[in-house]
Amino acid sequence: MLDFSLDSLFPEHGRHEFLENYLGHTPVIQHDHPYLKELSQLPYLSSIDELFQSWPDQVNAYQKGTADEVNSLEVSSSEAQKLYKDQGAGLFFDDPNRFIPELNPYLEQLRTELGLAPFTYSRSLIYLIAAGKGTHAHFDQNINFIFQIKGTKKWWLAPNETVANPLERYTIGHEASPELSSYAERPFPQEFPTEKAIEIELRPGSLLFLPKGVWHKTFAESGSLSLNFTFTPPSWADLLLSLLRSRLIQSPHWRETAHLLGDSEYGPHSEAHFQQLIQELSTDVQSWKADEILEFILKQD
Ligand SMILES: [Fe+2]
pTM for the whole thing? Predict the structure, then answer.
């Protein structure tokens, strides 16, 4: 079993330097990774042909137009192979950790290393991008670790000055959801912000840490196979909300039906009652302790 501690994953940087970059939303790259050999020997990753032959599930294929998951379709493995070979369609294979149990402890160790809450959505993904193709400019809401297994792929990475800490992904040229738009600081760009971007090349054995929200697009110089470990962790808001409901429903008053809203006779009474509950909550909240809440959350691990 491989050691997925931050010290072992990023030996040239070490845990402390990695975390400084992590906290600053700065990508980190480790080339010539010693884990390439072991990871390449995992099921599905030894060759592109093996991936098509043995993958037991549907595959997501980029359709014509925007090369991105926002414009993808689930197809059978044989259909995916045809699309890849005939049209160079980009493919991604969801959650290989369902079929490669060895990957689960790696995900778990990395989640713990980052101190992410137990109800983080942790998963792996395999990406296959044909030579001369790439992925359209976008950002993701998740934290991403990308192991380049085969082929070389160029990446362009740029800081996100449109929206800090996005809770959902966004692809340039597509519509942002009303919620994402509600907290964007400026309009979404029409094009990738090339002037602020850095260009890197991943080759077999390169490991890239891609922070959430960073703009990126890619171009495969040769058939590119990569294994991703991604984490969609709860925000502070999610953390609190997960507790808030369980706390509020201990009271019969909070469990009461929210009714007669806007009613001319009883509406004012409903509103006053709700205001009273909010008042009581605001007093209660002042005694809440972050350490006690976090202890409760970590106990669920
Ligand atoms: Fe992405």
Answer: 0.92
